[in-house]
Amino acid sequence: MTFDEIMDALADYGNEQTKKVLTKHGAKEPFFGVKVGDLKKIVKKVKKNHELALALYRTGNSDAMYLAGLIADEKQMTKELLQEWVEAAYWYMISEYTVPWVSAESDFGYELALEWIESPTEAIAAAGWATLTCLTSIKQDEALDLTKIEDLMERAASEVHEAQNRVRYAMNNYIIGVGINVVSLTEKAKALGEKVGKVSVNMGGTACKVPLAAPYIQKAIDKNRTGKKRKSARC
After folding, report:
1. What pLDDT score was predicted for residue 207?
2. Is residue 140 within 8 Å of 229, Cβ to Cβ?
3. Average pLDDT, the chain
4. Are 113 and 138 within one domain?
5. Helix axes 79-88, 109-116, angle to 10 degrees
6. Do the Cβ atoms of 145 and 113 come closer than 8 Å?
7. pLDDT at position 102, please?
8. Which residues, including other chains, have CB under 8 Å from residue 155's CB and lie 6 or more apart?
9. What proportion of the chain, given as a percentage, has pLDDT over 70?
10. Are residues 68 and 160 in the same domain?
11. CB of 116 within 8 A of CB of 124?
């Protein structure tokens, strides 16, 4: 599929109800309101395509940007491109999913994540924490700096309630992610989750809720889902 064909397909898949829902979550014009399931129909046809991914992301169209993350070739993503992407990620579906997925699978995810979590820009800082979470889900424990991962988890627990809105969500998710993905830190994560308790995040008037870290981790323990790494951060 060409760029124009993809944009036409996105327009055809656009759904007004989906658009209303995504608008409540933070999406802004221009976008069509395409369901993820329909985006994946395009992915099946396109596969990974670096040039198309870059062109789609640069449209600023939320549907195209999300699709770009699904077809991006992580091996061709440079630090400069990833920085460009994170700076353009204007709402959380892009900043906390699309960008972290691709960043974590690239060669630069860890170093960029450590830079991004220090950013005063809410979306960039949230992207940093989300990238770290993704890294724990796809990297074997021996490939992770577990001391740093643990230190960052303690930092997240101590700073979460004073952080910016979406950063609070990403920090809470980081504690959960470490607890589920890194077995040696599961109990520590659960204890920190209990200490943190309820994290308040403005979800834009939607029905979405912030998961309680400790119970969420315990459910994973009960279902024997801890320590199981994924092949890809993208889903």
Report:
1. 81
2. yes
3. 97
4. yes
5. 40
6. no
7. 98
8. none
9. 100
10. no
11. yes
In a domain, 84, yes or no: no
User: Which residue range(s) make up the domain with 93?
Assistant: 89-235
Residue type, 99: V
DSSP assignment string, 171-232:
HHHHHHHHHHH-GGGHHHHHHHHHHH-------TTSS--PPPHHHHHHHHHHTT-TT---S-
Total structural domains within the chain: 2
Residues 6+ apart with CB under 8 A from 2: none
**Is 205 a residue whose pLDDT tops 80?**
no
Measured N-to-C along each axis, helices 146-159 and 186-196 cross at an angle, to the nearest 10 degrees, of 10
Separation of alpha carbons 212 and 210, rounded Å: 7
Is the same domain home to 66 and 118? no
Tokens of 59: 């449209």
Has residue 150 been placed in a domain? Answer: yes
Residue corresponding to tokens 């599929």? 1
The position carrying tokens 């099946």 is 44
Distance CA 88, CA 197 (A): 32
Q: What share of the chain is helix, strand, coil (3-state, %, to 5)?
A: 70, 0, 30
pTM, two decimals, is 0.96
Hey, how many other C-beta atoms are within 10 angstroms of the C-beta on 2?
A: 10
Q: Sorting pLDDT into bands at 50, 70 and 90, what band is 134?
A: very high
* DSSP conformational letter for 16: H
Same domain as 110, residue 65: no
Dump pLDDT digits (tens) for 194-204. Answer: 999 999 999 88
CB 234 within 8 A of CB 69: yes
